[in-house]
Each structure stands twice: as structure tokens, then as C-alpha cells.
Amino acid sequence: MVFGIRSNESLNRFRTITFEGKVMFEDKHWTTKIKYNDKHIPVFNFYPLYDWATEDIWGAVSKFDLMYNQIYELMYKNGLSIHEQRLCQPYGDDQRNGIDQFKALEYDTWEKVVNRVNRC
After folding, report:
1. Which of 15, 42, 48, 52 is deepest in the core (most CB within 10 A)?
2. Which value, to the nearest 10 degrees, does the dihedral of the CA atoms of residues 75, 80, 83, 87 take?
3. DSSP H or E stretch at residue 73
4. DSSP 92
5. Taking CA 2 as the corner, what is the angle to CA 39 and CA 56, rounded to the nearest 5 degrees?
């Protein structure tokens, strides 16, 4: 699999790239062999875009007319800067702080989440 991560946002992400003890593909630090049940399997994660800043990502989207998730557009129109935008589960610390955005941008999904929690 190929991923783009912003390692400057997380020490764990940065360690994924720089950890010397991992199994790599062709000695490329931006690759990591996957373990399943504590055994290596013949699959690697590739993180070729690990050192891009948010501005780099959106610059590439604009310059190369790349596809992106339209929820980012809605977040921007709803007042979030490109640095505040996140697409992930809504239950982390940062995400809970912006839960009102989730409700405003994805009301149908929000309603399903609320209904699911109410049943628990």
C-alpha cells in the first residue's frame, strides 16, 4: 500500500519512517514491512510522501488538478483552515473538539452515529 503521511504532525509517524530496526524494502527508510500475528508477511507499506507540509499537499492538488475528498471543500467553506481539517473517526481528543463540524458537514452520518450510540 502507498500512503501519504505528515510526519511533522506526529512523533509516531516520524518514527515509522526513521526507525532503524524495521524491515525495509530495498533499504528505503520510507517503507515498512507489515507484521500479521507477530510474523512478517510479504507486504510493505510505502510512505513516499512523509515529509510534506499541509501547504505542499494542497499545492500539488491545485497544480496537478488531483482528485480529493470533497468533504475538505465543505470543511473549508465551514470555516476550517487547511491545518484544522481532519478526516478520521470522530472520537479522538482533537476530533471531539470539532464534533460540531462533523454534525454540520455530514449530517446523515452524524445521525447514524448518534443513533448507534443511543442503542448502546
Report:
1. 52
2. -30
3. helix 71-77
4. S
5. 140
Q: Is the pLDDT confidence value at 88 over 90?
A: no
Contact call for residues 47 and 4 (beta carbons, < 8 A): yes
CB 41 within 8 A of CB 34: yes
Amino acid in the structure at residue 31:
T
Name the band, by pLDDT with cuts 50, 70 and 90, for residue 118.
low
pLDDT digits (tens, 9 = 90+) for 13-68: 888 888 888 999 999 989 988 888 888 788 998 988 888 888 998 999 999 998 88
Q: If DSSP codes are grouped into helix, strand and coil, which group holds residue 118? A: helix
Report which DSSP code applies to 20: T
At 22, list the grid cell. 524495521
Cell triple for residue 62? 491545485
β-partners of residue 46 are: 2, 31
Question: In this structure, what C-alpha cell is assigned to residue 86?
Answer: 481532519
Q: Identify any residues that bridge with 44 across adjacent strands, giving them in sequence order.
A: 33
Q: What is the pLDDT of residue 81?
A: 92
